Amino acid sequence: MKNDFSIFQGKRILVTGSTGFKGSWLCEWLLNIGAEVSGFALKPKPYALLFEQLDLQNRIDQHYGDIRDAETVLSVFNKTKPEVVIHLAAQALVRDSYKNPKETFDTNIAGGVNLLEAIRMSNDVRALVFITSDKCYYNKEWEWGYRENDELGGKDPYSASKAAAEIVFTAYQESYFRVRKDFAAATTRAGNVIGGGDWSKDRIVPDCIRSLISGDDIILRNPQSTRPWQHVLEPLSGYLSVAKALLDNAPGSASAWNFGPDPENVRPVRELAEKAIQIWGTGNLRDEIDPNALHEANLLMLANEKAKSILGWRARWNFDHAIEQTVLWYKKVNKGTSPIEVTRSQIKDYMQEMKT
Ligand SMILES: NC(=O)c1ccc[n+]([C@@H]2O[C@H](COP(=O)([O-])OP(=O)(O)OC[C@H]3O[C@@H](n4cnc5c(N)ncnc54)[C@H](O)[C@@H]3O)[C@@H](O)[C@H]2O)c1
Questions:
Q1: Distance between CA atoms of residues 323 and 320, nearest Å
Q2: Taking Cα atoms as reference points, which of 20, 124, 23 lies closest to residue 79?
Q3: Residue 35 lies in a domain
Q4: Ligand 1 within 6 A of 197 CB?
Q5: 63 belongs to a structural domain
């Protein structure tokens, strides 16, 4: 199936978590398709520069507020009357979830309930894509990929909150949504992503870029550890494919979907850093391995066969291309090209790739 997202042209689409990393890329993509985009989120965190770099505050209908407040969520729905909702808002960091478990549970579970309630009461919404995470699966330290019907659960507050959000979603799906003729909903699960405009702390790509810009060595603490690398546009194309299938009433679309990279994209951190230096054109690496570092749980791999066979989704950018596009984003912006122009052109290239 060739994915053509023209179905979203002129559609009123609400993106929760619009000020975040994925939300900013998604809003830009939807603007490019010609959707009427509304956003709902907290004000961007100081390090979340992409929302401002893309000037989304002035280009979408942005509403600031807290998803933990049910009245606020309802009022945003009343103002924006969305036809499609893509729910990304979350306390999205595992590390912060250890520091603030209550905030994580309140945002990711109770906030999710507020959103589902607003949907239950809305007559306008036709499709909901509810984003959770690959971490919603109970991590059994398996080597092979988790499938959509595998056991849910989490050993840390973030993972548990995402598993719980899935369970709450299922209750709404089976109690209220499944019987509606005019509305369909699905959940989606993806893992860590890379891409231009991520300025978070303690993440390998932004850390590399900061070092490359300042001329300092890139310091690698876990050079041999491997990650399933995936460009942000890959899961976003998955979310849009699901939204389209829901609007089309495609059989089986109102279910759970994994959007994970192919196994050959699992590569060591060192390879990513070396590739980043090569594309940047200059830079040095230094290993600083901490002998007392905590043991890292094996990262989950997602089985992606369901999305491939039913939605016709597949990963378009392999490891090399994903890193290249990511580093080029920062390089071009650092040399003065407008972030909007760079982002748009990468989205255009990706959409071109989707036609093949
Ligand atoms: N980025 C990844 O690698 C990754 C991996 C797996 C799953 N996810 C999931 O994808 C979604 C987006 O991730 P991201 O990386 O863009 O996260 P992010 O931290 O960059 O953005 C989170 C967004 O949620 C909003 N938000 C947080 N608390 C809120 C509240 N109380 N009320 C209203 N809005 C609130 C923030 O304002 C922000 O817009 C999240 O649900 C996350 O759990 C992300």
A1: 5
A2: 124
A3: yes
A4: no
A5: yes
Whether residue 350 lies inside any domain: the answer is: no
CB 90 less than 6 A from any atom of ligand 1: yes
Whole-model pTM?
0.96
Query: Hey, whose CA ends up nearest to atom 3 of ligand 1?
Result: 192
- The CATH code of the domain that includes 26 is 3.40.50.720
pLDDT of 1: 45
Tell me if 27 CB under 6 Å of ligand 1: no
Mean model confidence pLDDT for the chain: 94
pLDDT tens digits along 326-355: 999 999 999 999 999 999 999 999 999 998
Mean pLDDT, rounded, for 291-315? 83
CA of 153 to the centre of ligand 1 (A): 19
Averaged over 91-118, what is the pLDDT? 96
Q: Which atom of ligand 1 lies at the shortest distance from residue 22's CA?
A: 16
Which tokens hold the place of 349? Answer: 């290239």
Q: For position 295, what pLDDT does the model report?
A: 55
- What pLDDT is attached to residue 145? 93
Q: Is 89 in the pocket of ligand 1 (CB under 6 A)?
A: yes
